[in-house]
Specification:
Enzyme class: ligase
Shape: globular
Helix content: 25-40%
GO molecular function: ATP binding; CTP synthase activity; identical protein binding
Keywords: ATP-binding, Glutamine amidotransferase, Ligase, Nucleotide-binding, Pyrimidine biosynthesis
Number of domains: 2
CATH class of the largest domain: Alpha Beta
Number of helices: 19
Family: Belongs to the CTP synthase family.
CATH architecture of the largest domain: 3-Layer(aba) Sandwich
Structural class: alpha/beta
Distance between the termini: 59 Å
Largest sheet: 10 strands, mixed
Strand content: 15-25%
Catalytic activity: UTP + L-glutamine + ATP + H2O = CTP + L-glutamate + ADP + phosphate + 2 H(+)
Radius of gyration: 25 Å
Length: 590
């Protein structure tokens, strides 16, 4: 096994995740199998209990792991399926060591950071790196490890020490360190300054790690004299110093790395030059150029409560981008109108409306109004998780006349609970107790829009993250009034997909289809939303219904089953520039 470690210096937010994912893609294009590990030095066991404002979205894996959003970036870039083992946190490491101590594994020993914590970190890395993530048997060829935070952070110190020991143990031909740093340009003099990177590398070397490659973030390409200066003071060959300068969209980053021969430096450091082929990024290059040339806009109003931080809905935005590029439309998203009038105007000017997941009652009335407007005005609508529950609440209030209909989450004493707490959930323990991971949904109505979008599938496997569900005791009343619950779990009592047959496109889903959307393989439901928003839904439904081969997990009753996304031809970038319409749920109110 070969290892590539990506660290960051000077400031946070430089794009270590983008760099790590781009390196993985570049190595994969060289014919190597690649896996990824993200190290988060925080004390939380996982990301599940953190606010999106605190750390961005919580990404959910197939096995139910609630992890850092960077693992979503890895999955999208490399088209792999990671596990909870691929996200290492300080909380997990200390919990494992303490459990071993209580069992007596260290009997007679004083348990210390060195060697017990550092050994646990190294063992975890080796164990996670061996897990197949690309659907093939056996371990990958290369594991790309991203160390979260910035060099010098106190909480990172055990990981730095462990990785220093690890690099020595596996040997120089099996370990390559890429250090991402900042080369700022002072506006007063317009000169690229190397001192921050010099200090960052000096600190890294003082902690026992020596960078093989410098990836320098800057507004423009590094001058040759700047590279020479960095090479001299950082002890890194000039040909191993690459510039990650500002580009129109992030899809260009793997191409920048390739054009600067970063793959050769990495392969040389890993003794793989004679094994790997030249990188083939033909398709990626084509997609990048196509994306840059899109100009026909599609406006999607996203009514959410965490719009103050775009990373809170990163996977949703990426799924929208996958689908819009697939349909050759330029995605338009515009965030956070501050007034009711502005928000309402944005909503009315949108081609489609999306209500994503969330927790808590803040902004709920705005979401209900958005669902009502979409339903009554025949505007394409997609509700995800909470968005589906909102659609049911609105329908019960407006159509059934149950004006106090609500969710137990928002009003525990409501006399008409449309949404209830799941019986198997825990009300005393928050972390890891939701209904998590990939679950099967059976499509009960063969000719519904959802089934057609999924290629006439009889069931689909999608990822979940919720502790509330639509009240099964109200289903008959809701369906009698025109709602159709076309997708259910294996018991038939848990609602997974709801549609309004009389509406051009009104779909709510309890699961999160955005987590399985991939570049070139847009989520079926997001593709449907974009198609409906630009008047191409009928064409898409006819095409999907005649698909002979679907990206799926098998055959059921002679029809294709489906694992979450459509076949397609467009790639996505990690943090692409997104312009578009987003309406804050708090801004729309009575």
């Amino acid at each position: 096994m070969k290892y590539v470690l990506v660290t960051g210096g000077v400031v946070s937010g430089l794009g270590k995740g983008v760099t790590a994912s781009s390196i993985g893609l570049l190595l994969k294009s060289c014919g190597l199998r690649v896996t990824s590990i993200k190290i988060d030095p925080y004390l939380n066991t996982d990301a599940g209990t953190m606010s999106p404002f605190e750390h961005g979205e919580v990404f959910v894996l197939d096995d139910g792991g609630e992890v850092d959003l960077d693992l979503g970036n890895y999955e999208r870039f490399l088209d792999i399926t990671l596990t909870r083992e691929n996200n290492i946190t300080t909380g997990k490491i200390y919990q494992s060591v303490i459990d071993k101590e209580r069992k007596g594994d260290y009997l007679g020993k004083t348990v210390q950071v060195v060697p017990h914590i550092t050994d646990e970190i190294q063992e975890w890395i080796e164990r996670a790196a061996m897990i197949p993530v690309d659907g093939k048997e056996g371990p990958a060829d290369v594991c790309v490890i991203e160390l979260g935070g910035t060099i010098g952070d106190i909480e990172s110190m055990p990981f730095i020490e462990a990785l220093g020991q690890f690099s020595y143990r596996v040997g120089t031909g099996n370990f390559c360190l890429v250090h991402v740093s900042l080369v700022p340009v002072l506006s007063v003099v317009g000169e690229q300054k190397t001192k921050p990177t010099q200090h960052s590398v000096r600190g890294l070397r003082g902690l026992g790690l020596t960078p093989n490659i410098l990836a320098c973030r800057s507004t423009k390409a590094l001058d040759d004299n700047v590279k020479e200066k960095l090479s001299q003071f950082c002890h890194v060959p000039a040909e191993n110093i690459v510039t990650l300068y500002d580009v129109p969209n992030i899809w260009h980053i793997p191409l920048l790395l390739r054009d600067q021969k970063a793959h050769e430096a990495i392969l040389k450091g890993l003794n793989l030059l004679g094994i790997a082929r030249e990188p083939d990024l033909t398709e990626w290059t084509s997609r990048t150029k196509n994306y840059d040339m899109l100009h026909d806009p599609v406006k999607i109003a996203m009514v959410g409560k965490y719009v103050g931080l775009t990373d809170s809905y990163l996977s949703v935005l990426k799924a929208l981008l996958h689908a819009s590029v697939h349909h050759r439309k330029k995605l338009v998203v515009e965030w956070d109108p501050n007034t009711f009038k502005a928000a309402w105007n944005h909503l009315k000017g949108a081609d489609g409306i999306l209500v994503p997941g969330g927790f808590g009652d803040r902004g709920v009335q705005g979401k209900i109004l958005a669902a009502k407007y979409a339903r009554e005005s025949n505007v394409p609508f997609l509700g995800i998780c909470l968005g589906m529950q909102i659609a049911v609440i609105e329908y019960a209030r407006s159509v059934l006349g149950l004006h106090n209909a609500n969710s137990i989450e928002f009003d525990p004493k409501t006399s008409n609970p449309c949404v209830i707490f799941m019986p198997e959930g825990s009300k005393t323990r928050m972390g890891g107790t939701m209904r998590l991971g990939t679950r099967r949904t059976y499509l009960k109505v063969p000719d519904c829009k959802s089934a057609k979008l999924y290629g006439d599938a009889t069931f689909v496997d999608e990822r979940h993250r919720h502790r509330y569900e639509v009240n099964p005791d109200m289903i008959s009343e809701l369906e009698a009034a025109g709602m159709s619950f076309v997708g259910r779990d294996e018991s038939g009592r848990r609602m997974e997909i709801v549609e309004l047959p009389s509406h051009p496109f009104f779909i709510g889903v309890q699961f999160h289809p955005e987590f399985k959307s991939r570049p070139g393989k847009p989520s079926a439901l997001f593709s449907g939303l974009i198609a409906a928003s630009c008047g191409e839904l009928d064409e898409l439904l006819n095409k999907s219904s005649h698909v002979s081969k679907v990206v799926g997990s098998g055959i059921s009753n002679g029809k294709a089953t489906y694992n979450g996304h459509q076949n397609g031809s467009y790639f996505n970038a990690l943090n692409g520039s997104l312009n578009g319409v987003c309406v804050n749920g708090n801004g729309v109110h009575h």
